[in-house]
Amino acid sequence: MKPIHVIFVLLVSMGAIISFVLISDPTPNAAGLDHPTIAHIDIGGDGAERLAPIGRAPYWFMVALFSMVPFLLYLGISRHRRTNLVRAALSVGGLASLYVWHNMYTSYETYLATGETTIFLGFPEPTAWFVYGLWCSLVTYTATYFLGFDTFIFPKEDEKAFTELMAEINATRKAEAEAG
Amino acid sequence: MEEFRQEIILTCVAAYMGLCIWVGIWAMRRTKSAGDFFVAGRGLGPVVISLAVFSSTLSGFGFVGGPGLVYATGMSSVWMTVSTLGYALGFYLVAIRIRMVAEARDTVSLPDVIAARYDSEAARLLTAITILLGVLGYMATQILAMGLVLQSVLSASEMFANISLFTCVVFSSAILIFYCVTGGIIASVYTDLVQGGIMIVAGALVVITAIDVFPGGMAEVSETLLKTDSESIMPFGTLGTMASIAWCFMFGLGLAGQPHVVTKMMMNKSIRDNKVILPITVIGYAIAAMLWISVGVVMRALVLGDVAPPLSSADEAAPVFLSTYAHPLLAGIVFAGLFAAIMSTADGFLNIGAAAIIHDIPRAIRGRSLDRELWWARVATIVLSVIAACFALYSYYYGSKLVAILGTFGWGTFAAALVPVVMFGLNWKGATKAAAITSITFSLIINFSFQVFEITVPYGISPGFIAMLASMILFVGISLLDKRPQIAKDIDRIMDL
After folding, report:
1. What this chain does, per the record (chain B) (predicted)?
2. Do B461 and A40 touch (CB under 8 A)?
3. Which of A162, B9, B445, B475 is most buried, taking the most CB atoms under 10 A from its CB?
């Protein structure tokens, strides 16, 4: 199966999840409510109540999204450089973001069920997973880009091949200009 | 220093306006051709490009709209800032190939690149029209924001207490037009550099200030919000899970289709610079985004904890925070940064809008762009600015929804129409012309229908997200069903690298 086929399957899965959400029956606070006394501020209300009609749809949507990202990035690597090293590096990013997402979502579900959470570095646990964890997990792709730039993103051989292509194009342009 | 707060803010803003005029004159000397005007002659260094890319993404919204959204809806809008994802996709999938196509085909705009990839003038025309519509909306909102901010800064002083919005719009537009017309994209990227620098420094300082507002720091902020409405400080905010993840998808993946951002990826001097451009961009954005989160969350806790009075509008979160809690000099620098953000974003949009009018649309229709492109580019810049300013004033004084409709037509529409065409098109040889034309047309129809017919999507899901997901499925689906296309030899060789 080619990367584009995996991407297509995951996109269709996301489309199916969204279709399910759109036909479900939203609660009045599904997208928040106006604050009862203060203008220009919304409140979320009962989080468990508004999640009830859609179940774990958001969880699975993001699983599909974070699974799709490494395949999208893989598509950007030229075919002849798609080595096991590339696959391993991108998989690390994918698995890290899935791990953080899973912990963030399950700790949020636990809070909804128990009403209890701990504060970590200034934020409730699920939010700390989001603010610190998700950002850091996705930064692995940036690190992979930087570290792998000369090996599989844009190695010297590709630079040379592009220089040769530009030399051919410029020669053709010059010949055309001389011919009038 | 506190008693001179207003004077310090005014001085910083005036100094910035002066800097704009100087940058315009300086950039004019470096602008000798349409290529210089639109893509800075592809001669910019990595630091300039890095800061220009992340500044283009944040714009004035990062200073005002973002903190306002966090104030109003808690953590929901923070999902827009998961740009580490968007930047990674942009650099893995777009940056290098778009730069190579730009050099090989001597292109000056995104529609040029799309026309080269799909060998289709129809795709070029549709892309140019999409850009033009988006630009008009973005420009009108930027000009209106610029006028309103200038009015709020000036009216706080005795001398300009009764200054009208009309005067402020005319004055700020005049400076904008001067520096855009003279300096083109070179002026834009160098003010992006100023904006980016200010945002990084101000982001870090404002976060420290915000943490200090409550004696217990961010933990006390979180505890206050947990007591009043816990959902707001939970990861999905008051808008809930679906609205948040829809924003994550649209703003994360959507970055690769923003013409004002990807056009900047065509401007670097050396392709190898991309190696450092991505990390610098991500680090700069991460620091600057902290301003967005911290100010919004702290202002919400102050109001809900009965420490501060409620705001008259959510967009006042950042200005009120700065004028109440920040050191006057920091407030002055951030206000100047706000002008830098609005002006450089407006300049970037004027630039791609002017390219659409004088370069892309004529090329798509009659096979060649206008003669004396540089001269016409400057004329088109003035015309676009004046139209956008008229739109903005008409909308404000007559309560028209036109600007709001065009304004919301921005990011989501660019993402829906252009992400599949650019992101898949530059990396997958199976992407076809028919898929490109269909997905652009389809996404424009969906987005306009949602806006014009005022259709509300349940769960606070953004219509732009629906259009983008549908457009991506359609694009890949049609391409898979279609016959494998013939690609021009040079583009084919670039796609092999």
Report:
1. Catalyzes the sodium-dependent uptake of extracellular L-proline.
2. no
3. B475
Residues of B in contact with A31 (CB under 8 A): 239-240, 242-243, 458-460
Q: Tell me which DSSP letter residue B495 carries.
A: H
The token duo for B200 is 């990084």
Enclosing H/E stretch for A119? strand A119-120
**Residue B105 contacts residue B112 (beta carbons within 8 Å):** yes
Three-state SS at A28: coil
Integer-rounded Cα radius of gyration of chain A = 24
Q: In 10 A of CB A178, how many CB atoms?
A: 7
Closest-CA distance of chain A to residue B288, Å: 14
Q: Are B146 and B342 in contact (CB under 8 A)?
A: yes
- Give dist(CA B172, CA B339) in Å, integer: 10
**Per-residue pLDDT tens over the stretch B161-176:** 888 888 988 888 888 8
- CB nearest to B84's CB, from A57, A135, A150: A135
Q: Judge whether A169 is closer than 8 Å to chain B, CB to CB.
A: yes
A16 part of contact set with chain B, CB < 8 Å: no
pLDDT value at A108 more than 70: yes
Asked whether A158 and A78 are in contact (CB, 8 A), the reply is yes
Average pLDDT, chain B: 88
DSSP state of B95: I
A113 touches chain B (CB under 8 A): no
Show residues of chain A in contact with B250, CB under 8 Å.
none
Instruction: Give the separation between CA B338 and CA B319, rounded to whole angstroms.
Output: 10
Rounded (10°) angle between helices B83-90 and B274-304: 160
Put simply, the answer to whether A43 touches B232 (Cβ < 8 Å) is yes
Question: Can you tell me whether residue B392 is helix, strand or coil?
Answer: helix
Domain range summary for chain B, segments of one domain joined by +? 2-395
Q: Tell me if chain B has a CB within 8 Å of the CB of A43.
A: yes
User: CB B8: neighbour CB atoms within 10 A?
Assistant: 19
- Chain centroid to Cα B253, Å, comes to 15
Q: Please, what is the end-to-end C-alpha distance for chain A in angstroms?
A: 50
Q: Which residues pair with B268 in a beta bridge?
A: B44
Cβ pair A26:B221 closer than 8 A:
no
**For chain A, what is the mean pLDDT?**
95
Identify the weakest region by mean pLDDT among A123-132, B34-43, B119-128, B433-442. B34-43
Q: Cβ separation of B93 and A31 shorter than 8 Å? A: no
User: Is residue A8 within 8 angstroms of chain B, CB to CB?
Assistant: yes
Residue A96 scores a pLDDT above 60: yes
Nearest-angstrom CA–CA distance, B201 and B212: 17
Nearest to B50 by CA among B280, B352, B386: B280
Q: What is the pLDDT of residues B270-291, one digit of tens each?
A: 999 999 999 999 998 988 888 8
Residues of B in contact with A50 (CB under 8 A): 240
Choose among B113, B105, B117: nearest CA to B435: B117
Task: Please say if the pLDDT value at position B404 is more than 70.
Answer: no
Domain boundaries, chain A: 1-55, 77-180
Pairwise CA distance, residues B461 & B400, whole Å: 25
The hierarchical CATH code for the domain B2-395 is: 1.20.1730.10
Report the residue of B245, B432, B471 to disrupt the A interface, i.e. the one with the largest count of A CBs within 10 Å: B245
